[in-house]
C-alpha cells in the first residue's frame, strides 16, 4: 500500500480537534505539512471542516507508522498546551499503529513543537521501536 498523505493529514486534523478546537499553531503545522506534501489550502480547509473517521492504518510500513506517530506528537505539542484528551488520542493511535503503552510518553520528550528544531529521528525511532508489539 502506498502511504496516503491525505489520510495522515486527516489523523492530524482529528488530533487537533480532539480538544474541541484547532489552535492557530496546530493549524499552521497542518497547513505546513499539507503544503510540503502537495495538498492545497482549499483541500485542507475542506478536510478541517469535514474530518473523516480514521482509516485502517495497520497496513503501513514500520517507517510510515513511526512518521505518523512523530507528526501526531509534534502536533499535540504545537499549541504549547497538552491536554489529556490529546495524550489519550495519541496513545490510541499509537496502539493502532502497533506500539505498546508508554511510547507517547517516551518519545514525546524528544519531539519538539517547533518543526524548525531538528530532532535526532534515528535515536527517536530506536526508542519507539522498543515499544513495538510483536
From TrEMBL:
This is TerB family tellurite resistance protein. The lineage of its organism: Bacteria, Pseudomonadati, Bacteroidota, Cytophagia, Cytophagales. It comes from the Bacteria.
Amino acid at each position: 500500500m502506498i502511504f496516503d498523505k491525505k489520510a495522515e493529514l486527516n489523523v492530524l486534523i482529528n488530533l487537533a480537534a480532539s480538544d474541541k478546537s484547532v489552535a492557530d499553531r496546530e493549524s499552521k503545522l497542518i497547513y505546513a505539512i499539507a503544503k510540503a506534501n502537495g495538498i492545497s489550502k482549499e483541500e485542507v480547509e475542506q478536510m478541517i471542516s469535514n474530518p473523516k473517521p480514521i482509516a485502517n492504518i495497520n497496513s503501513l510500513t514500520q517507517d510510515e507508522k513511526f512518521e505518523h506517530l512523530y507528526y501526531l506528537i509534534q502536533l499535540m505539542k504545537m499549541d504549547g498546551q497538552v491536554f489529556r484528551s490529546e495524550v489519550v488520542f495519541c496513545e490510541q493511535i499509537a496502539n493502532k499503529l502497533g506500539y505498546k503503552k508508554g511510547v507517547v510518553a517516551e518519545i514525546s520528550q524528544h519531539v519538539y513543537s517547533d518543526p524548525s528544531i531538528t530532532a535526532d529521528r534515528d535515536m527517536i525511532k530506536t526508542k519507539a521501536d522498543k515499544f513495538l508489539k510483536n
